[in-house]
């Protein structure tokens, strides 16, 4: 716990859905759900307009459709989200050498290591400016938490949502944390919360009052002692730049033990994808894939497999994780699953098979391969018009698929900086219609590209320090 709120946590608001609304003017202010759109699909996220109807991440898309039938249901466009993430992470890198990405849309930043004056006023100014810069560079909003520890910075950004900033003054944290549900403490999933609830513990204050010995009795030594420290505000976990980390992993505790084999495999595949997102957000790749399983009786085991070379290919990690989970007996019930990648390197060894596949893809594949060789090769684009995907029409220009079926596809022709556009319908095999690439979300010329040379010091020369991109973003849209 630091004496000044110099740990910043950034989390973009309704990230995938906001990116889609920024890209598709007709969807702004409307309910949007991004996720798997097939019968077994799961919601990745929902816009705040859709959340009003109870739609949430990880919910079955079928259930979301019942709750909010009028939302736009879109398939994710990971290439776009990664591009936006790169721009956001670049903004964070300007603040400090110590940036710890947790996913595409979320990271901790150690402002003290970035030389920011350790006062509430100074860090607040940095946080507000960051939010403005991210909006100017991406068109999206992010929420910022500032506090003296990671746990509190993350709680603060959650309180700041959407589109806000919350600073927790050191010294006030126990008072603030006390009445909160124990679930706010990192590492407390539904299962732990339930164990505590049965012992009459529901808030952070009650957790602290229970004392370390009681928590160890309830949860075991490591978990109990860790929880006691966090509940009493002792969180000295450092911000670790992922380039210094030795592994990247994600895990989930489940509300109810999983017994269904297919569900376990599905969750492992999703964790593998999330793990790769984090790996990529940090610009890393890794050689060893690890699967972690905690069973109904709390017995925990890990299985690992070392690949021939480092990878950041989601398909490769997914397949290795699937092989590993096959070797674990899970029928009696699983409380927690995790997927990690270790043996990290700063580069990716080109996947020869993937390369061969992209060469066979023809012109389209070759063009895409210049930018995204692994991604495009791993998922060669089928000629299926999934809702949300970009298309280009020879006559009408750029648009996106609104829906398809019965041999027809409807396309809305609009661009991120245009007025809401019109819908037209075509035959699915209309030769004038071709898959397109995501367009930049802010008008060309006003964009701040990740590779744009950024001053690494907090102050930049030329007196444009206060609002580095205001001149560009202020230019009228075409
Ligand atoms: N995501 C996902 N599956 C989940 C949770 C999230 O695919 N179970 C994806 C979609 C989200 C993105 O990760 O847009 C970021 O996750 P967040 O938890 O930060 O959620 P959002 O950014 O969507 O919303 P919030 O405003 O609550 O942060
Ligand atoms: Mg978010």
Automatic annotation (TrEMBL):
Pfam families: HHH_5, IMS, IMS_C. One of its GO terms (molecular function) is DNA-directed DNA polymerase activity. The keyword Cytoplasm applies. NCBIfam families: PRK02406.1 (NF002677), PRK03348.1 (NF002882). It comes from Streptomyces gamaensis. Binds 2 magnesium ions per subunit. Its EC number is 2.7.7.7. The active site is at residue 106. It is an enzyme of class 2 (transferase). Residues 450-462 have a biased composition (Low complexity). This is DNA polymerase IV. Residues 357-381, 430-478 are annotated as: Disordered. The keyword Oxidoreductase does not apply. Gene3D superfamilies: 3.30.70.270, 3.40.1170.60, 5' to 3' exonuclease, C-terminal subdomain (1.10.150.20), DNA polymerase, Y-family, little finger domain (3.30.1490.100). Residues 7-189 form the UmuC domain. Poorly processive, error-prone DNA polymerase involved in untargeted mutagenesis. Copies undamaged DNA at stalled replication forks, which arise in vivo from mismatched or misaligned primer ends. These misaligned primers can be extended by PolIV. Exhibits no 3'-5' exonuclease (proofreading) activity. May be involved in translesional synthesis, in conjunction with the beta clamp from PolIII. Belongs to the DNA polymerase type-Y family. It is found in: Cytoplasm. Keywords: Cytoplasm, DNA damage, DNA repair, DNA replication, DNA-binding, DNA-directed DNA polymerase, Magnesium, Metal-binding, Mutator protein, Nucleotidyltransferase, Transferase. Residues 463-478 have a biased composition (Gly residues). The record marks 16 as: Substrate discrimination. It catalyses: DNA(n) + a 2'-deoxyribonucleoside 5'-triphosphate = DNA(n+1) + diphosphate. Monomer. Mg(2+) binds at residues 11, 105.
């Amino acid at each position: 716990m630091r004496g000044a709120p110099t740990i910043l946590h950034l989390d973009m608001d309704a990230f995938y859905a906001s990116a889609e609304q920024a890209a598709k003017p007709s969807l702004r202010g409307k309910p949007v759900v991004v996720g798997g759109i097939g019968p077994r699909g799961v919601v990745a996220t929902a816009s705040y307009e859709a959340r009003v109807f109870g739609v949430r991440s990880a919910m079955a898309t079928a259930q979301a459709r019942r709750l909010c039938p009028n939302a736009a249901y879109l398939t994710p466009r990971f290439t776009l989200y990664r591009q936006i993430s790169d721009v956001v992470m670049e903004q964070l890198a300007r603040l400090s050498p110590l940036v710890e990405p947790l996913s595409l849309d979320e990271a901790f930043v150690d402002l003290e290591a970035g030389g920011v004056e350790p006062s509430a006023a100074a860090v607040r100014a940095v946080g507000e400016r960051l939010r403005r810069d991210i909006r100017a560079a991406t068109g999206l909003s992010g929420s910022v938490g500032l506090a003296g520890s990671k746990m509190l910075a993350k709680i603060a950004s959650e309180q700041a949502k959407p589109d806000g900033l919350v600073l927790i003054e050191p010294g006030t944290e126990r008072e603030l944390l006390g009445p909160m549900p124990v679930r706010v403490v990192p590492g407390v999933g539904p299962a732990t919360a339930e164990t505590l609830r049965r012992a009459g513990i529901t808030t952070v204050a009650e957790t602290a009052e229970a004392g370390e010995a009681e928590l160890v009795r309830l949860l075991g030594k490591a978990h109990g002692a860790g929880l006691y420290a966090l509940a009493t505000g002792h969180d000295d976990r450092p911000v670790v730049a992922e380039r210094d980390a030795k592994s990247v992993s994600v895990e989930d505790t489940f509300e109810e033990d999983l017994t269904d084999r297919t569900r376990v495999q599905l969750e492992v595949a999703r964790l593998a994808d999330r793990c790769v997102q984090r790996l990529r957000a940090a610009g890393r790749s890794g050689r060893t894939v690890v699967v972690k399983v905690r069973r109904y009786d709390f017995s925990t085991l890990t299985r690992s497999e070392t690949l021939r070379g480092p990878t950041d290919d989601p398909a490769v990690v997914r397949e290795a994780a699937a092989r590993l989970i096959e070797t674990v007996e899970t029928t009696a019930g699983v409380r927690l699953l995790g997927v990690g990648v270790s043996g990290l390197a700063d580069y990716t060894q080109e996947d020869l098979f993937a390369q061969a596949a992209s060469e066979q893809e023809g012109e389209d594949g070759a063009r895409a391969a210049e930018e995204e060789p692994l991604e495009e090769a791993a998922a060669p684009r089928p000629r299926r018009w999934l809702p949300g995907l970009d298309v280009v029409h020879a006559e009408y220009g750029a648009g996106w698929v609104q829906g398809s079926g019965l041999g027809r596809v409807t396309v809305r022709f609009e661009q991120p900086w245009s007025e809401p556009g019109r819908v037209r319908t075509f035959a699915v095999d209309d030769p004038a219609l071709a898959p397109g690439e995501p367009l930049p979300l802010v008008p060309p010329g006003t964009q701040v590209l990740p590779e744009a040379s950024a001053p690494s010091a907090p102050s930049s020369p030329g007196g444009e320090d206060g609002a580095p991109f205001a001149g560009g973003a202020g230019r009228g849209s075409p």
